[in-house]
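Checklist before submission:
- one chain only
- standard amino acids only
- sequence pasted in full

Submission:
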Amino acid sequence: MANPNPQNYNCPQCGQVDRVEKVSALLRAGTSAGLYSGTASGSGLVAGMSYTALSQKLSPPIEPIYQSPWGGCSVTITAGLVIWNIAFIVWVCLGLSQSPTVVEALSHGNLDYWRTFIIIIGVGLIGWVIMAAIISTKNRTASERGTHFATEYPRWERAIARWNELYYCSRNDVVFIPGKPNTCVPINEMQKLLYRP
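Returned file contents:
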């Protein structure tokens, strides 16, 4: 039994169907993975992907990825500062409990102790300021990236859904969505079509 609503796969430009293929199928046909012989940086076998020029032009839109600013080095530095500042607070508390009072230090001429103590307090406060600045910057960056991702991901979802509907006519080098002639564009404008509102 024939399909009651046959899809019109004819190219909107030439009206023919003989050179029309689904974009996703063309991409699979023009991509191969495996081991290739040859040299790359001194090795004899290279694993990878091979793409035809056409499959590169017809490749799907790239999925946006959220990258947290709290990776690797920044976590280590922040954790180090937190540990250092906690150790500093413990040291100050222990030092104050065993130190002479200000009056005793001044009456005995022990100003070096208090100068050292004030310098160490200053260095400790600088550590807290640096830690607060790092945390604030990372949180702001995370918020900006999160907002960008929240905007871009739905756009990508619409674009990939549209890409999955695309057909390619090799006679005219155009892509289109069957039944929607206003979507027929040259292959080099495919990305614009995918992200068109």
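Reviewer check: The chain is about 50% helix and 20% strand.
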